[in-house]
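Illustration 12: Anaphase-promoting complex subunit 4 WD40 domain-containing protein.
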Amino acid sequence: MDFIRSCNLIQDFSVIPSGHSHTDFSQFDFSKTREQSPKIDSTLQQFLKGNQAMAETIPFKNLHSREYQGHKKKVHSVAWNCIGTKLASGSVDQTARVWHIEPHGHSKVKDLELKGHTDSVDQLCWDPKHADLIATASGDKTVRLWDVRSGKCSQQAELSGENINITYKPDGTHVAVGNRDDELTILDVRKFKPIHKRKFNYEVNEIAWNMSGDMFFLTTGNGTVEVLGYPSLQAVDTLTAHTAGCYCIAIDPLGRYFAVGSADSLVSLWDISEMLCVRTFTKLEWPVRTISFNHTGEYIASASEDLFIDISNVESGRSVHQIPCRAAMNSVEWNPKYNLLAYAGDDKNKYQADEGVFRIFGFEST
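Figure caption equivalent — predicted structure in token form:
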């Protein structure tokens, strides 16, 4: 079956060359057909707008970061709620805080402290379907669910080890938790009780579901990404991704790719349908600790012990901007609606004490 695979406009916008499934190319003269058919003209206008939008890039060099203070010790994790209006931060000071962020405003930011954990809050994640519910994972062996409207813990599960990773299934029904003993626990959110437990005989780092929730990814200390079916948790594939341990994983919001950050200082980009590596991002020189796609899937941010955060174009692989930072980064996350990047690291003050800050890049003024 013959089909058009690609098309581009010639400068006067009257001709579109098109690549077919065969190797030949055809040209269509739109100067005549536009007069004959308003529908074709409307389609052409939409195509032109799309091309123009794609050509526009974010003026990164004109954007600024703002700093947010509140924690007493360093921040391990930052995460946005599903509508991009609130940011949560988890800290070594045993608390999480929730900040109301106005993407285009500059009013004083209010924050809410979530207290109850008795050890470091290592990672947190928001319910993907509910803008006021957040789950926290702590070294105190508990996982807690909070309603930020009241600031109260609504559910709590006591697990077997020090929890370091947590992620929601995209439909909001399950939460996956990883601990320091390489054990995975899946919790049913409604009852907040474990429904799956699995101990692995290799180092398990970050974990993630794909967008449809039928595949589950584990990054490992062996340099592999283990792909499991869900809910069976049966092995589907082992991807030899890097020459050193894989530390972090991010899923493209459009569902096309996933990215993996490694101790070999590389970020690899994988086609999720083919399970093939399509490119690598090479700007960092230290082990990659944290990565995140922006909401359109056009850009990927990655960070390490390098004193900058790299932002690269996903399709070209080129670095388009670097955000300077003063310490190794622990967490970066793009807002799900706007081009705002939250980031937090091991920042210290002049007395070498933890600053307990995080920052957000992407504002038009400081």
